[in-house]
From TrEMBL:
Residues 175-256 form the Formyl transferase C-terminal domain. Pfam families: ECH_1, Formyl_trans_C, Formyl_trans_N. It comes from Sedimenticola selenatireducens. This is Hydrogenase maturation protein. Residues 40-143 form the Formyl transferase N-terminal domain. GO terms for molecular function: catalytic activity.
Amino acid sequence: MKILILTHAFNSLSQRLHIELKKRGHTVSVEFDINDAVSEQAVALFQPELIVAPFLKRAIPETIWRHHTCLVVHPGIKGDRGPSALDWAILKGAPEWGVTVLQANAEMDAGDLWATVNFPMRAASKASLYRNEVTDAALQGVLLAVERMEQAGFQPEPLDYAQADVKGTLQPLMRQSDRRIDWQQDTTETVLRKIRSADGFPGVLDWIYGQEVMLYDAHAADGLYGEPGMLLGHSEQAICRATVDGAVWIGHLRDKQGVHPFKLPAMRVLGKRLAELPKIVAGYSDIHYEEQGRVGYLHFPFYNGAMSTDQCNRLREAYVAARRRDTRVIVLMGGPDFWSNGIHLNTIEAAESPADESWANINAINDLAREIITTESHLTVSALQGNAGAGGVFLARAADRVWARSGVVLNPHYKDMGNLFGSEYWTYLLPKRVGEERARRITQARLPMGTEEAGELGLLDGYFGQDNPQLLVELKQRAKALADDADFDQILRDKVATRQADEQEKPLDEYRREELERMNLNFYGFDPSYHVARYNFVYKVPKSRTPITIAGHRDISKRPRDDWSQAS
Ligand code: COA
């Protein structure tokens, strides 16, 4: 089937649909919903049999839905309507939620129902639920709807609130007043629900020492108490604030009125004002290590998978410490939502010299990658519970094995960030795994990749588990089996020998020097593309056109000239 994905942005959900629909043999093209004329043109060019809208910020124009079946992915249960579906479900503590695939018509979210898939709710942020449960349910719902479209005579169900299974309602846009925190009244559980309902966007508006900030990245601060509303201290970059029955850690803030009005680590936003705030030893940490038998697990659930210079340095230290332990295997766990998205573009944007900070950050991540690549005492595994992008994919590849949860999305390319050349020893790691020709294709194509394709290409060594609990069970068995392998010593010797041979052929330092030479041009050269692209990314400047890599219908080279002029 010819399917057009009409979406506000090519976000994780749209990427997953793109991968899975293509895998099933459909011809898929993507158009960003910029305005009516552009969307209409895309439809005229592509002539889709179906339009799927996974993430829209406005209604589909009537000129389109009147003549084409348009299926909207709504992150709500049957009957739920409105722009704050997940926000309300989290704030109200709904035990179960869902995704409904409905047909676009004149009334927002009120069209006929093609599929609904429900899931149990988890105590997590909106963004985390979106990237996991919602994405999986949306995929199931869209696949079901596509199957139903192909069935002769299937009739979607009109929305009818008299039906017993239609439990949702029309809910308004959630306002800041709906989730404002009352520090004198709210329990830890309530504060967490309020912040999570707005995390990643828009954040909960609050005041800290009179400064207006948006709150994100909240966690319970077990065992800490104080006068409700009081700041108790900080740990790494997070601040701790007391509630009526405990306290919460807040990892990230956004100062909308500030010089840098985007998300940054909390202490980076408040730093100078909080000079006196005590450091809480053994407080919150974005890196932790655990051991089971002869396997060490290093977790680094960095917010949004972004790795600042400081985080890379701390992670390298933690990795080196893990390597000193009497274990055989080290598993690099990343976090539950992302494994890594490479260098931290927000802290770079906020630096006095973004070029210098980019340089420091890429060198810090390279130092970490180097420690992993040159490890001779252990076998190493990267375990991807969540997506990885850009340098994050290659950092994962620095380990001896890369295993992933089925369905994670990889973006193994840098070029979308203003033609960034990239480093993390990718020029060594990628061709070594997939060969020169495929390496070139992967980095040029700039497309998201599913686990199946990444497995076939050799970018992944295995993928399993439909969700993280399933992944963890099998991961632990596999890691233990690797550590207990009767041939462990031989496997380790072979790995060391291969590395030595590679080093003889071309030293790691040489790869790094060549990559950094190109990165130096990206950061300090005459072409400002990387700085512009980073600014646009951090400030979330809407895209003004869909890249040709995903909008196949706009690729003039693939269309007869007459055809093009008719559509324009
Ligand atoms: N630095 C800082 N923030 C980052 C980041 C990075 N490297 N990568 C992602 N983020 C943030 C996004 O700004 C977004 O923030 P929000 O919570 O305010 O919305 C959040 O992480 C999720 O990213 P999003 O783009 O919405 O996720 P996605 O799953 O749809 O897309 C990527 C994933 C990897 C394709 C996309 O995030 C990306 O291109 N990231 C930049 C990768 C990069 O170029 N890194 C630098 C070179 S190594």
